Amino acid sequence: MWFKNVLLGVFVLFSLIGCSGQKLETKPTINIWHWMTDRDPAFQELAKKYEALTGVRVNFELYAPSDAYSQKIRAAAQGTNLPDVFGILGEKRDFASFIRAGHILDITPYMEANNNNWKNNFFPKALAVNEFASGNSYGINPGIFGVPIDIMTIQMVYNKKLFSQLGLNPNRPPKTFQEFLDIGVKIKAAGMQGLVSGWGEVWMIDCLANNYAFNIMGKDKVLATIKGEVPYTDPDWIKVFSIFKQMQESGILAKGLVTMINKSAEQIFANEKAVFAFNGSWCVNVYKGMNPGLEYGAMLPPEASNQYPIAIWGGAGSSFMVNARSKSKEESVKFLTWLTAQDQQAYLAQATNNLPANKDSLTKIPEILAQFARGMDYATHPNVWGVSEFSLVIEAFDRGIQSIIIGEKSPEQVADEVQKIKDREMAKKRAR
Amino acid sequence: MKIKDTLENYTFILPAVTIFSVFYIIPFIWVFQLGLFDWDGISFTKVFVGLQNFKEVFLQDRNWWQSMWNASYITLIAITLQNILAFMLAWACDREIKMKNFYRVIFFIPPVLSEVVVGMVWRFIINDIDGANIINRTLTGMGFANLAHNWLSDPNTALTTVAIVHCWKGFGWGFLIFLAGLQTIPRELYEAARVDGASAWQSFKKITLPLMIPVMVLVAILTVLGTMQVFVLIVSLVGGEFAGHTSVPVLRILASMRGSSRFGYACAQGITFGMVLVAISFIQYRFSKKGQ
Question: Could you list the residue range(s) of the whole structural domain that residue A329 is in?
Fold first, then answer.
């Protein structure tokens, strides 16, 4: 009886508390998914600072490797279970699909508030990757849909010590393609390895080929090719394909380059076994971890033509998007505004050796990173071109270059094969 | 009484049927259904294209059939080289030899290693600039310097090198199953044969081989199913498809899903691939039945 009374009393007490209408004041939690293993400790540190400052808890969840992350994001999109903030890995086409499905918030109003206050913080090229211009081929309403966290450029790096051993000036990297090829002959004669890169993973081949396409025929003709107005069998494209043949013949390319993954390429360059590497600005952090004493410099790919300037891939390295269905949209935008402010960006740059997206945070970065940052003047990216090539054409293009490097096909053969696939895809598109 | 028995029987198999349906049959139907759509894997809308994706897989996708050919080549080497080696080693370990338990453990180490690790280790063994170049050094040391070259980046040797590494990784499974099979053969049969004057070869031919046929079929089916789906080892050994020379069906499916965002097409490829595997297994099974 006594026990029953106590139990009843507790029940009545809880019921009264429940009906009291007292609201529990809780600050929201912002959930962020990302794949950047190297940046996770810095993100966690910033999350702690933000919580101390505002009381809002930010929960960074790391899902690596990037392939697994990519699949997780797609699965979550299907189940409308995306977190408040997330990043998208993939091409602009995928970005557009996420927007079309209503997963991403248009942050233009926030960016443009108070006389573009937030927008003006960023490198314009970093923002361009997250922007859809009016009349874009993806059918997306014009606007800014992502917040760049850092920027990157993909350039060449060279080992200064090996340069000296070859009798070259370590402070004067090659400027022209012919000078580059001549160094290849010296490298071969010295029994060294020339250029290393992750060309087994193909997309970096595509990157260098596009650099030279811009250099040889200019942006307009490259875009005209993507639109189907210029064929890949055009003599200028044959010149682009021939670049790889010339490199192979000169001895500038390292052995086994076509099956090399970028991690191996980074290891080889960091261990001073290769004279050149083609890599993104993220390599500064990687090389520092592998060999802190490595002496190297960054350089633009040597120009093959003086008709047009060389272009390199660059822009936003990684970006965060706000979930349009999130209940914490406003809080998420506030956090991203804070994260991309000068101090936080400077901290991220120092802690992770990545280039900050905020242009006012470039002070105090190491010289090698500054060299990569200067490359932003030459930066372009497929995501800002407004048109995109068919994925099957890109695949045939990259595979074809691999075949040229291994001496299996000629530049003309590859051009012909790529154009056939382009014609087929164009016909399919017209039929739709 | 009969109805009660029938109901009872169905009740017993109900959990298994449910699990099989939920995890195998329904996903298969679902994947087939997705194969009839043009879908990027993100949008909520899918465009119905009928059998267009399947038509493209069968009639237009040369890369797909090249990948099937490459996987078949690796499988052929696995079925022959890998399984013969596994059978011979199992046969040796089944006999009274010294340290047989030690060998059993050693032979079973490769299968339990991760494919990524195996790929990285073999890449290190084979490659020169990012590895120890052991193969080429050995060849040069033996006076065959002219044979030394880039095994993984030469289109003529890349696939065979991948196949051999795959055999090294996979022979332990076959070894284990063959050994288990050999141990089920009654010893009395061998003793009787010896009393009748049969030689070791005759015992092997007349007793071991016929009794091992069901095990061989099982190992062959498992080898085909396992090898046709190889891809992790290829990625860690050669970084990917290497101008199509090391392309395999799973890599093609991944390329369609991730590279091209063509989920519908990737599903059509997956279904086609699954049907091919089922057909091969069925043929093998029928063959073994006839053989028996």
Answer: 29-151+315-375
In a mutational test of the B interface, the residue from A82, A100, A206, A258 whose CB has the highest number of chain B CBs within 10 Å is: A258
Q: How far apart are CA B291 and CA B270, in angstroms?
A: 32
Q: How many interface pairs between A and B have CB atoms less than 8 angstroms apart?
A: 94
Reply yes or no on domain B61-291 having CATH 3.90.226.10.
no
ipTM of the prediction? 0.81
Query: Domain holding A225: CATH number?
Result: 3.40.190.10
Query: Which residue on chain A is closest to B120 by alpha carbon?
Result: A264
Q: Which of B230, B217, B236, B239 is nearest to B74 (CA)?
A: B230
How many structural domains does chain A have?
2
Taking CA–CA distances from A199, the nearest residue in chain B reads B239
Best to test chain A binding among B42, B49, B150, B235 (most A CBs inside 10 Å)? B42
Per-residue pLDDT tens over the stretch A287-328 = 998 999 999 999 999 999 999 999 999 887 899 999 999 999
Enumerate the residues of chain B whose CB falls inside 8 A of the CB of residue A91. 261
